[in-house]
Each structure stands twice: as structure tokens, then as C-alpha cells.
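Weekly puzzle thread! Below is a chain. First person to post its structure in C-alpha cell form gets bragging rights.
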Amino acid sequence: QVQLVESGGGLVQAGGSLRLSCAASRSSIGTMSWYRQTPGKQREWVATISSSGSTNIADSVEGRFTISRDNARNTMYLQMNSLKPEDTAVYYCKAVASECSAYGCYDHAYWGQGTQVTVSS
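Winning reply:
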């Protein structure tokens, strides 16, 4: 099993910056992603980074957000710059990891509890 703990959320004025962190409880984590969700809307994908560092960023945040990871510390980051009020949401960390037994392995997705980001205008 894997536990994920997000941190770094808070209240910031439009144009400001925040850096979110997602710490995993163990190593050997595969793909990690950031999602966000506001009340009344479905969860939205924001960014993904593979175990080797390959990244994908949503068009809505490209150029403003950067995803990275430090495998030695089992931690993923989301650097958010030039924040806009529409970025306000609960941001969730997702990680995929293999669960193995004598019968084989399968991939399981784990989710953090989320961290609130509020951007004021």
C-alpha cells in the first residue's frame, strides 16, 4: 500500500505562486499526476509525470504550471505561477504503484486527501 500526503496549498492573490508537494510513503512509484476539483464539477486532470521524468501538462495550465519529482525523496511537486481565480480548487495527488504477490503483479491507483488552493482576485 501507498500513502500520499499533499501540502503547500493556501490562499494567494491573483498573479501569485504556490508550490504543492505530494509525498509518498514508499519508493518504486510509477506514474504520478495532479488533478483538481471544484464543487459541482468533475475532477480535472492537470499534469502527469512518469517514473523516468517524462511530463504532460494540461493546456489550461501549460506555461504557468510545472510538474517535477524527486524519486530519492518519493515526492512530486507542482509549481504554480501566475495563478488565476479559475485555478481555485482542491488539488489531489494520484500515484500508480504495483502490488505484487506470488501470483503476479497488478497496478493500483492511490489518491491523496487533497489540498485547497484559493486564488483571490
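Puzzle host: Confirmed. Bonus trivia for everyone else. The first strand starts at residue 4 and ends at 7.
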